[in-house]
Every structure is written in C-alpha cells, then in structure tokens.
Amino acid sequence: MKKTLLFIGLFLAFTLGSFAQKYALVDMEYILKHIPSYEIANQELEKTAEQWQEEVEKMQQEVQNMYKSFQTDVSSLSANQKTTRENAIVAKEKELQQLRNKYFGQEGEMFKRRQTLIDPIQDAIYNAIKEIALSDGYQAIIDRASATSMIFASPDIDISNQVLAKLGYSK
C-alpha cells in the first residue's frame, strides 16, 4: 500500500513538474529577413557564385569543344596525335574539376565566404536567443521555420520580435 501511494505521489510530482516548463518559438527565416546585413551578405554571395559559375561553365564549354573537335578529327589523326589530344582533354577535365572544388567544394571559396559573412550574423542571433532563454527561464526554444512537423503553435509563444529587438532591429 505504501509503495503504491509513493508511486502515485512520484508520478504526480513528475507530471506537475513537467507542466511548469516554458517553451518558446522563433522563426529564423523571419528574423533573417529583417536583418539588412544578412540580406546584403546573401546578395554578395549570390553575385560571387554567379561569377564563379560562369567561369566554370566557360571551362566546361572548352572541354566539350575539345572533345567534339577530337571526335571530328579522330579518323585522320595518328596514334601519337590521338594520345596527345586525349591527354589534353583529360588534363582540361581535371583542371575543370579542380576549379569546381576550389570554388564550390567542401572547403572551397564559397564555403569560406559564407563562414565570414553569414556565420557572425547567425552567431549573434544564437547568442540573443540564448540570453532571452536564460533570462526568461525557457527550457526549450524551437525554430518554427525548420520544425517541419509543427502543425500549429500559438503566436503568444513566438519570441522572434524579441530576438530582433535584442539585436537592435526593433520591430
């Protein structure tokens, strides 16, 4: 009997304790949309990516032209000339791959630029959210933009505008 009462008491204590937790939502897309420096950084990244993509496409066209020329001339080339042209095509393809990796690879220029331009903004947002969570006693803050299984959430628990105000972008 005592064990049953103890079990029921513990169950009630844990249940009531879980209701006291505070949760909040943020909408990262909304926050980022209202930070001008993020928009400027994004535009700069897009412009740079377009320039680099044009350069990659130009080299890719050169490789294709070399291959088409080789296909056209293959019957009139000696074995030595075929080998030389094939090697030139392979070397150009390798150069193309190196250029792609240089700009768009995992440790490429685009990755590095994104880190220098966007990461400080995201870090500032994270720190503002963390400060709000600690000062207001939130147990968890969920990003509404990335929570794909969230069907509905009360606007009362959305602290996105509070985060923008903390960052100096009053809304």
Could you characterize what this model shows?
This protein is mainly alpha-helical and 171 residues long. The model has no long low-confidence stretch (mean pLDDT 86). It has helices spanning 2-19, 28-33, 36-73, 79-104, 109-117, 119-136, 160-167, and strands at residues 23-26, 140-143.
Features:
171 residues; mainly alpha; two-stranded parallel sheet; 7 helices; 2 strands; 72% helix
What distance separates the N and C termini? 58 Å
Order of strands, widest sheet: 1-2
| E-strand count | 2
Q: Any low-confidence stretches, pLDDT <50, length ≥5?
A: none
Outline of this structure?
The chain has helices at residues 2-19, 28-33, 36-73, 79-104, 109-117, 119-136, 160-167, and strands at 23-26, 140-143. It has 171 residues and is mainly alpha-helical. α6 packs across α7 (160-167).
